[in-house]
Design a protein that fits this description.
Shape: elongated
Largest sheet: 5 strands, mixed
Number of helices: 2
Structural class: alpha+beta
Strand order of the largest sheet: 1-2-5-4-3
Distance between the termini: 25 Å
Number of strands: 5
Amino acid sequence: MSDYVIRSGDRAAFLAGLRELVDFLTANPAVVVPHRASVAVLVDASDSTGRREGVESVAAPLGVPTEDLGQGYFDARREFGPIAYVVVAIPPEERQ
C-alpha cells in the first residue's frame, strides 16, 4: 500500500469539461483567455518520501522528472503550449 493519496477526480467529467470549455471559447471569440494556465493534481502524504513517490507516480506517465523544490515540496510539470499540467506535493503543515 502506498504512503500517499492523490487527489484525483472523475476523469470522464474532467475531459468533458475541457471539451466544453474549448467549444465555448471557440464559439465566443470575444471571451478573453489567460496568457498562461495551469491544471494541478495534489498529492497528500505525511512524510517527504511519500510525497516524492506520489509525485513520481504521476510524473512517470507524463514523461517528466520530479523536482525537489526543498523544504518538503515536490512537483512535476508538463507544458502543453501555454497550459501546464502540474502535480504538486506540499508538506502537511503548509496546507493548514
